[in-house]
Amino acid sequence: MSHPTDSIQLNRDVEANLVPSGDIITLKEGELVRITQSLGGNYTVLINGNMAQIRDENADSLGLDSLKKDKTEISKEPVTEKLVWEQMKTCYDPEIPVNIVDLGLIYGCEISDLDEGKLVDIQMTLTAPGCGMGHVIADEVRRKVNGIFGVEDVKVELVWEPQWNRDMMTEEARLELGLF
Predict the structure, then answer these.
(1) Does 71-176 match 8-62 at the fold level?
(2) Every domain of the chain and the residues it spans
(3) 159 and 120 Cβ atoms separated by less than 8 Å
(4) What's the CATH class of domain 8-62?
(5) pTM value?
(6) CATH class of the domain comprising 71-176
(7) Each residue of 103-123: pLDDT tens digit?
(8) What are the pLDDT digits (tens) for 10-35?
């Protein structure tokens, strides 16, 4: 879902990330929010004229069920680059209704062996170097890729070269965002 909904009253206090700064704030029980984007398991909400992102594990504060899957639900197949890329496609910028892979924000992904599983090294960028949500998006990538069965560790590095531009987006992403 990526369409606005009616106002929802929070049924408990919940931590959220203020968009675009990424600052952690606490939304209070009883406050009214409006979901503007629900993609990849996270919820972007409007509250008092501000935007905030509520993570999937706090979906219950909105009266919704978590979509979180454990490692065995994602796949028991060997860790492959294709599987990692598919998992990264479930990550979204809270302001843009296109996944970060199709936005062209993932510059590289390497898988190597560790004692008990695989290490996944990911290089990614942001649409703007000053984006305060960078650490939030990188953490989401780390958590979701670490959720793959057989992954022991994930390292996500934010890189700035080459600088991101619209040409790095897939044709589908440009079409979705009306950039043709």
Answers:
(1) no
(2) 8-62, 71-176
(3) no
(4) mainly beta
(5) 0.83
(6) alpha beta
(7) 999 999 999 999 889 999 999
(8) 999 999 999 999 999 999 999 999 99
